[in-house]
């Protein structure tokens, strides 16, 4: 059966229907014709799994200010975030949270009926003096409620959705973006969307690691596809490991559990975080706690000599656990058979969040070089983008802020710009890459298995490119990735059917992961310092003189070339990072 | 250990009829059924089609019938199931391929109840206030992940596909009992109808099926009562703006 091709024209196409994509769609569709293309049905997006909260200095329970939020974000990111962008985010966070409430988001409430707020790692009052209640939350399903609320509003507004359409290419012609190509999963048809503006909101890529909190579908599709089209990827060496993943499964236990009073214990029952972060203790930033857990394990203080520690929630009021953390209580009971009210929960660091991604400015426009030149018509927002507001390490609750603030800004900028623009011409070979890639995977014979390659990739990334890194290990990882990439050329998809060919889809996704793992490892090997989540055993100190800069990885003729660009520093000069 | 798993396969591009296939794969008792499906897909037959994403019961992708009951494959453990484990698609929607069903009608019904906050009063500068008690009244129904397990376990729905179904009523409940919502009158025609809440025969299959532990039948009962008494209950304790 031949693969049909169908053509569409829109003012704007938004790829991805998580928090970033839906927020952009809501804004843009107020003033222009928008299509949302998503490989998942929108409410299945990974934003729905976010648990703990969205940070905004509302000051509903304690004094707070956006400047303090800004300081915490910059310090949490180990001074790598661009401070102009962080300022935009922390100021607008307040307004965007009210706006979500007006849309109907069911936040938990204070006795006065205001949005309730709780503590979260790295969020402080008065520039580091003490933890502050800044995370606005809806039980431990804040992301679920954001995703549902935004989708509800999109329905109300009549946004056009193309559900279960998998992006296969982003079209660039004459130095600007001209549209996208997507595979309709139900029919196997290719759809070509010609558009004045494209916003990518395809989420993260935690699936390149073996133990991760990320969904099976988080494979960095948008990042890899534009990387192949010559757009650089920024700060790829910074990947966050969240300290409390459920042992072996990687399923997340929110930092909110520690915000409510939970503590970490090593194999000897000691509160080891007191030694690593005397002020913030168990609410220190994630990179520090993940390293502390690795150290405890290395020095023989893991539980039963194994590679995990305990999260203790037994000292909390059982009612607080059941009411404020119902979902994670359910996860722990379901998947471990452990009752967190009475028993200790085994946890280990889990690959969680990509700080790096597609470089953008504060209007979510993609900037394609070290001079921040705008690639007209192309936008990115959410976890796939790098503005950069998270720098070397993201603070908890700041991704939900990032996706709604910059999703909204991107949507607005598109709405303001497309009126003045013509529909760009499609390149003559618009469909050829998609045809070629799908054709190769479905015609290879007697070849390699995508599942086997993926397993090897996830293992080497976990062993060599996770919480601690050093030169020999990184070189080993690079060699393995290079072998896996050549084996990937021979991957055979046995399913030749058009409808719901999920084997083909998984093979495409593996291709994206291989690209991103490669860029991550190249960036990690080059950066000879330790900053935020990037921790080199052979270069344990932060080196501002040489490395206070963003990396840009370009794909050039089968190689990766690195370039660098400066960090925007407006209010806070780099200092040592102590908690 | 080795486990046996029987899957109802269907691929209309290859074979017009559905057929049962049995597979033996390695699995740990603590593994999820989803892990076993992946083992089949990744080691035995790549063409096996099912939806999944989060793998921990939050995205609502993988509702299917497991040993005769609607469950999420990622939320049932192997150790809790009798073997051979039988797996088939949810009942009541057209099957497209293997375990993938066409959810179009499910989402049409969802849209019919106007699943969004209706409140045309001017937005205040900060949040609209809501007391914790009023927030609590619709807490249960905010958990819904639109997986479809309830609707496709409902005998009333199997008997009449025009029935709006438990999942849509759960969504309506979430707004009808939200003190900020003014949309009761707009939603009434769909709900207060023989194909609306009155089709429910209180069989409780939906409540048994719901992977989020939502008291679905109770929520439907509350919506029935609201329609019978002619309006949403007054807000219990709306706090005074300070
Ligand atoms: C378990 C967990 C808990 C978290 N908790 C918090 C928290 O409490 N606070 C916080 O701030 N952050 C939290 N985060 C992080 C945060 O949830 C995510 O970073 C954020 O939701 C990402 O949103 P997004 O819109 O960028 O992408 P996603 O929500 O991941 O959406 C990606 C979208 O892209 C689409 N897509 C992907 N590839 C393609 C393709 N090829 N073609 C078409 N569409 C495609 C998908 O269908 C999906 O709709 C958490 C993350 C996890 C994993
Ligand atoms: S009510 Fe429960 S079973 Fe029904 S769709 Fe929602 S989550 Fe699924
Ligand atoms: S895979 Fe998300 S609910 Fe099962």
Question: In words, what does this structure look like?
Answer:
- The complex is a heterodimer of chains A (579) and B (242).
- Chain A has 579 residues and is α/β, with parallel strands linked by helices.
- Among the domains of chain A are: 247-351, Succinate dehydrogenase/fumarate reductase flavoprotein, catalytic domain (Flavocytochrome C3, Chain A, domain 1), CATH 3.90.700.10; 432-539, Fumarate reductase/succinate dehydrogenase flavoprotein-like, C-terminal domain (Methane Monooxygenase Hydroxylase, Chain G, domain 1).
- Chain A is built from 16 helices and 20 strands.
- In chain A, helix 1 (19-28) packs parallel to helix 11 and helix 5 (221-228) packs across helix 15.
- The mean pLDDT of chain A is 96.
- Chain B is of the alpha+beta class.
- Chain B folds into two domains: 2-101, Beta-grasp domain (Ubiquitin-like (UB roll), Roll), CATH 3.10.20; 104-229, Fumarate Reductase Iron-sulfur Protein, Chain B, domain 2, CATH 1.10.1060.10.
- Helices cover 29% and strands 14% of the residues of chain B.
- In chain B, the strands form two sheets. Chain B has a five-stranded mixed beta sheet with strand order 2-1-5-3-4, with helices on one face. In chain B, strands 6-7 form a two-stranded antiparallel sheet.
- In chain B, helix 2 runs parallel beside helix 5 and helix 5 (166-176) packs across helix 8 (216-229).
- Chains A and B meet through helix 3, helix 4 and helix 10 of A and helix 1 of B.
């Amino acid at each position: 059966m031949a693969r049909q091709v169908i053509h569409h024209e829109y003012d704007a196409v938004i790829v991805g229907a998580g928090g970033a994509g839906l927020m952009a769609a809501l804004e843009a569709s107020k003033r222009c014709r928008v299509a949302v293309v998503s490989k998942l049905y929108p409410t299945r997006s990974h934003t729905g799994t976010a648990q703990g909260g969205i940070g905004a200095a509302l000051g509903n329970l304690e004094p707070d200010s956006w400047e303090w939020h800004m300081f915490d974000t910059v310090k949490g990111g180990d001074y790598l975030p661009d401070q102009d962008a962080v300022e935009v985010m922390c100021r607008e966070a307040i307004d965007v949270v009210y706006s979500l409430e007006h849309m109907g988001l069911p936040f938990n409430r204070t006795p006065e009926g205001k949005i309730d707020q709780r503590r979260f790692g790295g969020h402080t009052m008065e520039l580091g003096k003490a933890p502050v209640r800044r995370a606005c939350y809806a039980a431990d399903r804040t992301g679920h409620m954001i995703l549902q609320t935004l989708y509800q509003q999109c329905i109300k507004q009549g946004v056009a959705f193309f559900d279960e359409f998998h992006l296969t290419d982003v079209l660039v012609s004459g130095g600007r973006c001209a549209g996208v190509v997507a595979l309709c999963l139900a029919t196997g048809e290719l759809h070509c969307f010609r558009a004045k503006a494209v916003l990518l909101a395809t989420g993260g890529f935690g699936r390149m690691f073996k133990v991760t909190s990320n969904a099976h579908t988080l494979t960095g599709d948008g990042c890899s596809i534009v990387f192949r089209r010559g757009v650089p990827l920024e700060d790829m060496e910074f990947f966050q490991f969240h300290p409390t993943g459920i042992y072996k499964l990687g399923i997340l236990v929110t930092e909110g559990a520690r915000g409510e009073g939970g503590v970490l214990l090593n194999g000897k029952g000691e509160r080891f975080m007191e030694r690593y972060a005397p002020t913030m203790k168990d609410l220190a930033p994630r990179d520090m706690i993940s390293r502390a857990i690795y150290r405890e394990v290395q020095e023989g203080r893991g539980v039963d000599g194994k590679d995990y520690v305990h999260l203790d929630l037994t000292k909390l009021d059982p009612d607080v656990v059941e009411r404020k953390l119902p979902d994670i209580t359910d996860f722990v009971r379901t998947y471990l058979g452990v009752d967190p009210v009475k028993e200790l929960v085994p946890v280990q660091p889990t690959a969680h969040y990509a700080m790096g991604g597609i470089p953008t400015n504060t209007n979510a426009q993609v900037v394609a070089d070290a001079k921040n030149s705008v690639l007209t018509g192309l936008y990115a927002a959410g976890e796939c983008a790098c503005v950069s507001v998270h720098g070397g390490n993201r603070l908890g609750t700041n991704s939900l802020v990032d996706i709604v603030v910059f999703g909204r800004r991107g949507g607005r900028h598109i709405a303001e710009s497309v009126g003045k623009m013509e529909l760009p011409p499609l390149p003559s070979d618009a469909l050829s890459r998609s045809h070629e890639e799908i054709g190769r995977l479905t015609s290879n014979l007697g070849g390699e298995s995508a599942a086997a390659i993926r397993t090897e990739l996830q293992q080497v990334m976990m062993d060599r490119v996770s919480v601690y890194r050093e030169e020999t290990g990184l070189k080993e990882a690079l060699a393995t990735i290079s072998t896996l990439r050549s084996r990937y050329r021979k991957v055979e998809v046995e399913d030749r059917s058009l409808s719901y060919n999920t084997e083909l889809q998984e093979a495409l996704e593996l291709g994206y992961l291989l690209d991103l793992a490669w860029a991550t490892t190249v960036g990690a090997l080059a950066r000879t310092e330790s900053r935020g989540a990037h921790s080199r055993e052979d270069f344990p100190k932060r080196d501002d003189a040489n490395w206070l800069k963003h990396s840009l990885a370009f794909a050039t003729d089968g190689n990766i070339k690195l370039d660098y660009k400066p960090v925007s520093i407006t209010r806070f000069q780099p200092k040592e990072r102590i908690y | 250990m080795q486990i046996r798993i029987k899957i109802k396969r269907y691929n209309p591009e290859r074979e017009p009829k559905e057929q049962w296939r049995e597979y033996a794969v390695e699995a740990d008792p603590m593994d999820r059924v989803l892990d076993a499906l992946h083992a089949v897909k990744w080691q035995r037959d790549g063409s096996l089609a099912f939806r999944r994403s989060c793998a921990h019961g939050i995205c609502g992708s993988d509702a299917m019938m497991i040993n005769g009951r609607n469950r999420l494959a990622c939320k049932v453990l192997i150790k809790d199931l009798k073997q051979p484990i039988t797996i088939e698609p949810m009942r009541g929607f057209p099957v497209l391929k293997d375990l993938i069903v066409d959810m179009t009608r499910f989402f049409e019904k969802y849209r019919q109840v106007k699943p969004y906050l209706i409140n045309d009063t001017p937005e205040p500068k900060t949040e609209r206030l809501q007391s914790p008690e009023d927030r609590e009244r619709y807490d249960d129904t905010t958990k819904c992940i639109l997986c479809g397990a309830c609707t496709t376990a409902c005998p009333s729905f199997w008997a009449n596909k025009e029935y709006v179904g438990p999942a849509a009523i759960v969504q309506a409940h979430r707004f009808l009992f939200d003190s900020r919502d003014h949309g009761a009158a707009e939603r009434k025609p769909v709900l207060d109808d023989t194909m609306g809440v009155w089709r429910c025969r209180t069989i409780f299959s939906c409540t048994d099926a719901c992977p989020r532990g939502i008291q679905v039948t109770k929520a439907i009962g509350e919506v029935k009562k609201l329609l019978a008494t002619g309006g949403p209950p007054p807000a219990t304790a709306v706090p005074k703006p300070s």
